[in-house]
Amino acid sequence: MTPPRDIAGSMNNLARSVSNSLNLSTSPNLSFHSPPSSFRQPPSGSFLDGRHGSVPANSHASQLAKQLKPFDTKDIKVLLLENVNDAGVKILTDQGYQVEAIKASLPEDQLIEKIRDVQVIGIRSKTKLTKKVLDEAKNLIVIGCFCIGTNQVDLQTAAQRGIAVFNSPFSNSRSVAELVIAEIIALARQLADRSMELHNGTWNKVSKGCWEIRGKTLGIVGYGHIGSQLSVLAESMGMDVIYYDVLTMMGLGTARQVSSLDALLEQADFVSLHVPATADTKNLIGASEFAKMKDGSYLINNARGTVIDIPALIEASRSGKIAGAAIDVFPDEPAGNGDYFSNDLNAWTKDLVGLKNIILTPHIGGSTEEAQSAIGIEVSTALVRYVNEGTTLGAVNLPEVNLRGLTLEEPNSMRVVYIHKNVPGVLRQVNGILLDHNIAKQMSDSRGEVAYLMADISSVKESEIRDIFQSLEELSSCIRTRVLY
Ligand SMILES: NC(=O)c1ccc[n+]([C@@H]2O[C@H](COP(=O)([O-])OP(=O)(O)OC[C@H]3O[C@@H](n4cnc5c(N)ncnc54)[C@H](O)[C@@H]3O)[C@@H](O)[C@H]2O)c1
């Protein structure tokens, strides 16, 4: 553990970090991309929103934005299951869609009955949208998963039917980052042990081995949505931040990237893990990595349970190599709440719970009211954009395609969305159908067997829309056609 330092010392380090990060950013050998934040779905009207082609609210442009609607569908019917957050429901009802919101999930037969009738369905993790269910969903154009995961949906079948699927993987990034800050302080002050002792009637006032976090080094492994948020928060509390990521990235503030995991482990007083669960990250921190960490340092895992080799953690804690750890995620986690955290679940549980200064939490990193509301807003916004504009930004099963919005200054214009089999010659056929009109803008992309084309066409008479729609529908490559005007 780095001993307490005065502010002047920290300022020198700050200056050094700045020059390091400048060196990094001017290296011609390194490529950069901006640190991610919730860029995929910025709030409506934000600057980033404009970058994605929509228009900022209250601007001149937004007053001129043309509200598109499907030419062949009078009402958009939406079925929301599993108690979708109110903020999300409101966004959909405000659009004038017919929304039926049900608190529970539905048994399969009732689900099939209801799904036949709707264009949009919103679910959380309990509703299974299997091939059998999707086969009945003849009118469905889009699925919103108001949660992080999408395992409950047959994504491939949905793509093959031209049904877009959206989720909200990053709405809880801030919640996780804040929890990590709390854990850093709690570990440095042995807070959980003191609290537990007092709950059991023991007054144990100690300062030995308790630290301020100011001037200590935080090492972030995985500088994505959560890692980069954490970086900003930690720095504002006077920590020096270093990070390691497989991608080369521009650090926020004075945070600087280090070239290897080993370099990070050797320098950090606190190591916090924010990588995805992949084959590469399985047991990313095991016995040899613990050996490289500083004596008396701390480890925090709010990423995924497979990332740490827990028996190695138990050993590192017992030997005093690490002074504490906070673990929010486990290789095996119970499906519901109850007294399931035992050796039956993970063979080492009893050893883990007996250790000093180990904070254990039941996968609550992202579980806040704010995150739930943000999920509601993010997914509903994506659904509205898809229904009204055909934009697939953030879709998990279709290529991401977007065009800047049509405006009222383009009165005789319409938008064609053509979801089709990814086979040669389709663009030629589609453009043959659109030939007599001016294609103002067009974008197309493919993902596996399915391709997605968007085109804005001007100088179209309303009477011609149906012909264009039908000609596209008759192409052998057609999965689904939508015309918005
Ligand atoms: N505890 C919770 O409740 C909770 C909530 C949300 C997310 N999570 C988990 O947190 C983790 C991070 O989420 P995120 O939204 O920041 O993800 P993200 O995709 O935005 O960022 C992950 C970063 O890790 C990097 N990375 C991938 N493999 C790496 C490796 N081997 N070494 C170093 N860096 C590597 C990627 O390049 C990326 O920058 C995920 O595992 C996610 O499932 C947990």
UniProtKB/TrEMBL annotation:
InterPro entries: ACT-like_dom_sf, ACT_dom, D-2-hydroxyacid_DH, D-isomer_2_OHA_DH_cat_dom, D-isomer_DH_CS, D-isomer_DH_CS1, D-isomer_DH_NAD-bd, NAD(P)-bd_dom_sf. Its EC number is 1.1.1.399, 1.1.1.95. It catalyses: (2R)-3-phosphoglycerate + NAD(+) = 3-phosphooxypyruvate + NADH + H(+); (R)-2-hydroxyglutarate + NAD(+) = 2-oxoglutarate + NADH + H(+). The keyword Oxidoreductase applies. One of its GO terms (molecular function) is NAD binding. GO terms for biological process: L-serine biosynthetic process. It comes from the Eukaryota. Keywords: Amino-acid biosynthesis, NAD, Oxidoreductase, Phosphoprotein, Serine biosynthesis. Residues 32-44 have a biased composition (Polar residues). Pathway: Amino-acid biosynthesis; L-serine biosynthesis; L-serine from 3-phospho-D-glycerate: step 1/3. The keyword Amino-acid biosynthesis applies. Residues 415-485 form the ACT domain. Residues 19-60 are annotated as: Disordered. Residues 19-31 have a biased composition (Low complexity). Catalyzes the reversible oxidation of 3-phospho-D-glycerate to 3-phosphonooxypyruvate, the first step of the phosphorylated L-serine biosynthesis pathway. Also catalyzes the reversible oxidation of 2-hydroxyglutarate to 2-oxoglutarate. Belongs to the D-isomer specific 2-hydroxyacid dehydrogenase family. NCBIfam families: PRK11790.1. This is 2-oxoglutarate reductase. The lineage of its organism: Eukaryota, Fungi, Dikarya, Ascomycota, Pezizomycotina.
